[in-house]
Every structure is written in C-alpha cells, then in structure tokens.
Amino acid sequence: MKTREIAEAGLLIALALVLSYVESLIPAFVAIPGIKVGLANIVVVYALYRLGFKHAFLISVLRVLLSTLLFGTVMTLAYSAAGAVLSLLGMALLKKTGLFGTTAVSVSGAVLHNIGQITVAVFILETDALLYYLPFLILSGVVTGIVIGIISSTTIKRVSRGQEDDNASD
C-alpha cells in the first residue's frame, strides 16, 4: 500500500469507529429491537467505490474488531463479523456487475448484513424461531440501505469533484 492509501484507510477506520460510537448512543427503535441505521457502512460503501474491495474489507474487519473491543462483547463480535463479511461480499459482487448503482449496492449490503446476523443468532441460540424476525429486518435493511446509499453516493461524488478541483489548481 502507498503512504496515501494507508493514511486514507486509517482516517476511514477512525471515522467508521466514530460513527459506530455515535450510533451506539442512539436509543434502539422500541417497536423492533436490534434495528440500527448502520452509519459506519457509509464508510465501507465509500471505501468499496473509492479504494476497492481490499481496502473496504480491511476497513470493515478492523472496524468490527475495534468497535467490539471498545463498545461490545464477544457475542457482538460473532454477529457483527458475520453481518459485515456477508454484506461486503454481496456489495462487491453487485458492484462488480456494473448493473447496480450505489444505493442498490448499499441496500443489498444492509439486507445481507441482517441475514448474516440472524443466521448466526439461529445457530448460537439454537432456535429457528428467530427467522420470523427476518422480514422485519429485511424491511429495515431496505430502508436504512437506501439512506446509507444516498449519503454514500453523495459523499463519493463530492469527494471526486473536490479532488478534480484540487488537480486542476495544481
């Protein structure tokens, strides 16, 4: 990795951790517990589009590990890791096809994140009754994925435009 890539990845990991912490301060949605917006995924989607899969994977894995150490428990590591890996793999595959925009890729990531977490919960808690919760999680994934996708897309465009402006002034 080049020095600039390392610095940018470090900044993005720090930003993802800050967003994870901010989200932990937001009270859970009372009607459907466990639903979160996924603010840190703005950083992962951004990294996937701007830096590529390897950087996005590194950022995602380090964010999960560090946020678990700082704010979570051993159990949250299993859920978060499963969701993060499945989410990123799905997003990378959809992005690679070139058929889907940033928002659709983000929605797939949010839905796959929820599927990954519920799958781990079914195995850990040894009950398939949790699968009844999946439609609510999928719906929330679509909604939050749209929000995260729009924010990510806007961020990617603005950063790209800013870099073009910087290059023009050099």
Report what the structure shows.
This protein is mainly alpha-helical and 170 residues long. It has one domain (3-158): Orthogonal Bundle (Arp2/3 complex 21 kDa subunit ARPC3), CATH 1.10.1760.20. It is 80% helix and 0% strand. Helix 3 (53-71) runs antiparallel to helix 4 (74-97) and helix 4 (74-97) packs antiparallel against helix 5 (102-125). The radius of gyration is 16 Å and the shape is globular. The two termini are 24 Å apart.
Assign the CATH class.
Mainly Alpha
The parts where pLDDT drops under 50 for at least 5 residues are none
Summed up, the domain count is 1
What fold name goes in the CATH topology slot? Arp2/3 complex 21 kDa subunit ARPC3
Please give the count of helices. Answer: 6
Estimate the global geometry from the Cα principal axes. globular
Distance between the termini: 24 Å
What does the main sheet amount to? none
Structural class: mainly alpha
In CATH, the architecture is: Orthogonal Bundle
Tell me what portion of residues adopts beta-strand conformation. Answer: under 5%
Mean pLDDT: 91
Radius of gyration: 16 Å
Question: Considering DSSP H and I runs of 4 or more, what fraction of the residues is helical?
Answer: over 70%
Quick one: how many beta strands? Answer: 0
Give the SSE string. Answer: HHHHHH
